[in-house]
């Protein structure tokens, strides 16, 4: 049981994913084929392998705005009902093949209207695809449950409209609401009417905060907007003074040693068990973290913040959820208990009724990890 979990074993583990973008997870070959079908001529290359390499290279600039530019190509081929159904179907299949048993996949309906679809038609197409993908996965013996998060863009003015759609479709597959896009200059408080509406409707929402901007973005998301979760939240580390290396150099990754001084905001986030949707590889690519080795997730896990591990954009970062966990195992020497802890955190934080969260934790996550841990030499 002391052996490090291998990537192959991690792929077999039942995992939960809260932060995955639909337009950031397309298969390169699908992009090429959809470009041909829709007449889009803007791709940098039509070779799927070269295209995958281009997305990864373009996403490693260390700047969030440059990272976001890559979505121009994926969104461009997602403007018809057929393309949305296909992309959503393949998303569910790909996640299930990686061992994900629960996922929340987010997308911005307002970005898929150029082909003449209405917002309702976009949502219904994506939901059809996610349902079809889950059914296909079940037939392959890799069951998955997928909920959608409807995202509003920070720089636009449609957040209230998207929030109303999230409420309207919450009983047919939409799990919640999100806002995304460049943080600097676009504070979440610009969308207060949407968040106030969601709270009145007892709806769930997360906010991208603390990725491209610092503590003020996190503070506004929580104290003004009332976010249930923080998308990324990496910069909460700016409110923590880490004393562990000098005071307790032998403290393991699971040790709550008291060797850190938390500011008021960081203390609030930990005390309130506010989930942090961290995406290690993406956070490095966008410049939110300097490296996997220096990613705040190590400190935050040690201090028992409600940390979850996510993919963000599987295409741009050339990653899977299993690969994200494998990197953390390599860098922080995590074992099966640590990986189970991250996944239980994710399920505790999912936008599902309590009994359904508990059913997945006790029926899939814990038994699956127990089998893998005891099977290890």
Describe it for me?
With 377 residues, the chain is an alpha/beta fold. It has one domain (7-375): Metal-dependent hydrolases (TIM Barrel), CATH 3.20.20. Helix content is 47%, strand content 14%. The strands form 2 sheets. An 8-stranded parallel beta sheet has the order 1-2-3-4-5-6-9-10, sandwiched between helices. A two-stranded antiparallel sheet has the order 7-8. Strand 5 (205-209), helix 10 and strand 6 form a beta-alpha-beta unit. It is globular. Residues 246-257 have low confidence and may be disordered.
Strand and helix layout:
Layout: H1 7-12, E1 15-21, H2 28-38, H3 48-58, H4 64-69, H5 71-76, H6 81-97, E2 100-107, H7 119-139, E3 145-153, H8 159-168, E4 174-180, H9 192-200, E5 205-209, H10 215-224, E6 229-232, E7 240-242, H11 244-247, E8 260-262, H12 264-271, E9 276-278, H13 280-285, H14 297-302, E10 307-309, H15 321-332, H16 336-348, H17 354-375
Number of E-state strands: 10
Radius of gyration: 20 Å
User: Can you list the strand order of the major beta sheet?
Assistant: 1-2-3-4-5-6-9-10
Percent helix, as a range, is 40-55%
Number of domains: 1
CATH topology: TIM Barrel
Largest β-sheet summary = 8 strands, parallel
Uncertain ranges: 246-257
Q: Number of helical segments?
A: 17
Name of the CATH architecture: Alpha-Beta Barrel
Strand content: 5-15%
Mean pLDDT: 94
Q: What's the SSE pattern? A: HEHHHHHEHEHEHEHEEHEHEHHEHHH
The CATH fourth-level homologous superfamily: Metal-dependent hydrolases
Shape: globular
- Which CATH class? Alpha Beta
Q: End-to-end span in angstroms?
A: 6 Å
- SS-based class: alpha/beta
């Amino acid at each position: 049981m002391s052996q490090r979990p291998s990537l192959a074993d991690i792929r077999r583990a039942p995992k939960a994913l809260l932060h995955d973008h639909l337009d950031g997870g397309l298969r390169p070959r699908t992009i090429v084929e959809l470009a041909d079908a829709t007449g889009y001529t803007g791709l940098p290359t039509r070779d799927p392998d070269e295209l995958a390499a281009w997305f990864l290279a373009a996403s490693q600039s260390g700047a969030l705005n440059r990272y976001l530019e890559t979505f121009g190509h994926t969104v461009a081929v997602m403007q018809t009902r057929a393309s949305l159904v296909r992309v959503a179907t393949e998303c569910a299949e790909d996640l299930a093949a990686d061992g994900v048993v629960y996922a929340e996949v987010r997308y911005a309906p307002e970005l898929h209207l150029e082909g003449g679809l209405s917002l309702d038609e976009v949502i219904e197409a994506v939901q059809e695809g996610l349902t079809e993908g889950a059914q296909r996965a079940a037939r392959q013996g890799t069951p998955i449950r997928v909920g959608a998060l409807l995202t509003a863009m920070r720089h636009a003015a449609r957040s209230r409209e998207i929030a109303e759609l999230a409420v309207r479709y919450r009983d047919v597959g939409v799990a919640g609401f999100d806002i995304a896009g460049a943080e600097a200059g676009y504070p979440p408080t610009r969308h207060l009417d949407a968040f106030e509406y969601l709270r009145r409707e007892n709806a769930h929402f997360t906010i991208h905060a603390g990725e491209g901007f610092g503590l003020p973005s996190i503070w506004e998301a929580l104290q003004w907007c009332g976010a249930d979760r923080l998308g990324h939240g990496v910069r909460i580390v700016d409110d923590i003074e880490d004393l562990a290396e000098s005071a307790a150099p032998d403290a393991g990754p699971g040790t709550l040693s008291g060797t850190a001084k938390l500011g008021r905001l960081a203390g609030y986030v930990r005390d309130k068990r506010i989930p942090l949707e961290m995406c290690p590889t993406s956070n490095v690519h966008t410049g939110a973290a300097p490296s996997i080795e220096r990613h705040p997730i190590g400190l935050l896990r040690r201090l028992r913040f409600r940390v979850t591990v996510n993919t963000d954009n599987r295409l741009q970062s050339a990653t899977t959820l299993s690969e994200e966990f494998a990197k953390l195992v390599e860098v922080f020497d995590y074992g099966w208990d640590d990986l189970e802890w991250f996944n239980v955190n994710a399920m505790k934080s999912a936008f599902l009724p309590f009994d359904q969260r508990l059913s997945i934790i006790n029926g899939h996550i814990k038994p699956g990890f127990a089998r893998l841990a005891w099977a290890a030499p």
